[in-house]
EFMT4 methyltransferase
Amino acid sequence: GCPARPGMERRRYRYRQRRFWDELYRQEGAEPREWLGGLARFLPHLQPELRPGDRILVLGCGTSALSYDLHELGYRDVTSIDFSAACIAAMRTRYARCPDLRWAVMDVRALAFPDASFDVVLEKGTLDALVAGDTDPWNVSPQATASMHRALAEV
């Protein structure tokens, strides 16, 4: 593999920190950002798994248009969470014209929904943030392992 650049782990570690995300979203607002691609990239794999009326939860929504795009395809029961209050405030403003899209400030490691509230749970990069800063994906730190276990147990 390629050697890590000096300070790379420190810069990646910030992805675990709510402060980093709040500052980013305060600066950028709700400008769409697709870290790993938009819905079109995943739709051929996702659509066969979705059913009309599915209750969908989007974890760590960020400023992705994923939730809105699902809504526009006819999936009306979409709830999106992010642990950044600045992000959720920006998304509520951006999609105010879609009152049935729901937005909540919530950490994936401590979901406040009753069991079996959703039929589908989507994420595209949130779990990566839990291990950000770890240099070896095969030897994850105890902190990252605990965070991942909490998130997966919640889902």
Observations:
- Confidence is low (pLDDT under 50) at residues 1-9.
- Helices lie at 8-13, 18-28, 39-46, 66-72, 85-94, 126-130, 142-154.
- The chain has seven helices and four strands.
- Residues 83 and 105 are 5 Å apart (CA to CA).
